[in-house]
Design goal:
6-stranded mixed β-sheet, single chain, alpha/beta, globular
Length: 532
């Protein structure tokens, strides 16, 4: 390509190094992004991706963070060392950012209109009426249904996909030259994930902007990016066109990332004896109105669900957000009120009082999606793992200590982890602690609610391998809830597909994947195939 045909460079990062005190977290990173192109930075947590992206808008905490070397230019203008006033004029106008978690990035106390309008008031000086019209344009641009009705909505009233669309609308309010997208689809269902990525591609074509994508998911890179740089421990170890990186990776680390897809490793069931049977379970939430708060209707979160789980079996439950997956689990654990029969080992748990139910809770344990949120920051690992045994009140201190240490061995964590606290561990290690906390009670059934969705692919594979090993070792039965179809295919004997609180399809895993019968299942699988 000659110089006359070359597209202008929107972003130039040259020999960039970033330090926090004496710790250097990014070393000699260089890359460019042309107008209308998408560049992806990939790597595991801690590789330096987000720190690099935040530096472009000078959002790192100074003076704690500093730049020993390097340059960052936006549309030819250097940003390192610029004062607050200069950066404020560049942010939003020249470059904008979509953050990873919209629920924490959006203000829960302000309406959608107020949050988008704030940008328009600040950067464009629009009056209230003009700002409202622009808000409607932006919500329509990102395909929010009935945008006028959504102006007065608060973030909690929107779905995950809609909140992410609002974040994109805010980022595009001033039509920036560069859009930085930091893990924009991590927690989204596969169908919503596809919609968001297609939306970004269409907006890029319409507005001609450059996109910097930060992600640990190589499937997204393959779908969206033109070029990719692979980061490891603060350095770029490989960079090039997406097609070349995927077809002919050169670096060992790149090959490891590409090979980290979950692999099916399911053994035949040794028993078909039902361990858990649920018959016609219903969880209905009343809708009330009027002075006397009379019930006029119900939200049928779970509406007549029946399932069976055998000894040593993994049952995968899939469906989009709002389909009822987590409500189903809370209902079968008797954490919320429900109707229908819940048989565990032949005993109907419905109607048991709290004292009688406590006996069975030891056999029915759960591992939550976010270990950082579910582990107490004030408790050591020893206290976290031993708490369940202490509540049971059946064991001596010596027996508890032996059991805790064995649980730690089972999840492959070192003995010195017992005296440390959750914040001192990586995401994968925290999830191992959460598994140990459940495992120490020797449960029969382990419920796994999105246990790997927030983890890097390589760490995800390690956790899945660990779960398979523990299942064989302890003859555990799993209920595995996820929106990641590649994961559910790798670990499940059978799959149950939920939509709007009802089971729309159920069957052997390979049968459901190869011959889906319901249109909803076909749509889920079709969306997942787009990332392969």
């Amino acid at each position: 390509m000659n110089n006359a045909e070359a597209k202008p460079l929107v972003l130039e990062v040259n020999d960039l190094s970033i330090s926090f005190g004496q710790l250097q977290v990014v070393e000699h990173v260089s890359f460019n992004i042309e107008k209308g192109k998408t560049f992806a930075l990939v790597g595991e947590s801690g590789s330096g991706k987000s720190v690099t992206a935040l530096s472009i808008l000078q959002l790192l905490p100074f003076p704690a963070a500093n730049y020993p070397a390097g340059s960052i230019k936006l549309m030819g203008k250097e940003v390192i060392g610029k004062d607050r006033a200069v950066m404020q004029s560049l942010r939003g106008n020249m470059a904008s950012m979509i953050f990873q978690e919209p629920m924490t990035s959006l203000n829960p106390l302000h309406t959608i209109e107020k949050q988008i309008s704030e940008i328009l008031f600040l950067h464009q000086g629009l009056n209230k009426k003009a700002a409202q019209l622009r808000c409607l344009e932006l919500l329509d641009l990102v395909a929010i249904p009935e945008p006028k009705k959504r102006l007065d909505s608060y973030p909690h009233e929107l779905s995950g996909g809609q909140r992410q669309r609002v974040m994109i609308a805010m980022a595009l309010a001033n039509e920036p030259d560069l859009l930085i997208a930091d893990e924009p689809t991590t927690a989204l269902d596969v169908t919503v994930q596809l919609q968001i990525l297609e939306l970004l591609k269409s907006l890029q074509a319409k507005l001609g902007m450059a996109i910097l994508m930060i992600t640990h998911d190589l499937n997204i890179v393959k779908h969206l990016a033109d070029d990719v740089a692979v980061m490891k421990q603060g350095e770029i170890v490989e960079m090039g066109a997406v097609e070349r990186i995927f077809s002919d990776p050169q670096h060992t680390y790149t090959k490891t990332l590409l090979d980290a897809e979950p692999q099916r490793d399911i053994r035949a069931l040794l028993s078909t004896r039902p361990l858990l049977q649920i018959k016609n379970l219903k969880v209905w939430f009343p809708l009330k109105k009027g002075l006397w708060q009379r019930t006029y209707d119900h939200v049928k979160a779970i509406d007549g669900v029946s399932l069976q789980l055998n000894e040593g079996e993994t049952l995968g439950i899939v469906g989009e957000s709002g389909s009822g997956k987590s409500t189903l689990v809370r209902g079968l654990l008797r954490l919320i009120e429900s109707e229908g029969d819940i048989y565990f080992n032949g005993t109907n748990l419905q109607g048991l009082n709290l004292t009688a139910m406590r006996v069975y809770r030891q056999s029915l344990q759960i591992v939550f999606q976010d270990p950082f949120g579910s582990l107490s920051p004030r408790m050591s690992v020893r206290q976290i793992i031993s708490e369940g045994l202490e509540v049971q009140g059946k064991h001596s201190d010596a027996e508890i200590e032996i059991a805790v240490k064995q649980a730690l061995i089972d999840v492959a964590l070192p003995a010195d982890a017992l005296v440390r606290y959750p914040h001192q561990f990586s995401g994968g290690q925290r999830q191992r602690i959460a598994i140990a906390r459940a495992l120490v009670l020797k449960p029969k059934i382990l419920i796994l609610d999105e246990p790997t969705s927030a983890l890097d692919r390589t760490v995800q594979k390690q956790i899945l391998d660990l779960l398979c090993q523990l299942q064989r070792q302890h003859q555990l039965s799993y209920i595995f809830i996820t929106h990641d179809l590649s994961v559910v295919r790798a670990v499940s004997h059978r799959i149950l597909v939920l939509k709007a609180g009802k089971v729309v399809e159920e069957g052997e895993t390979e049968s459901v994947f190869n011959q889906p019968q319901h249109a909803y299942t076909q749509a889920l699988l079709s969306a997942a195939m787009c990332f392969n």
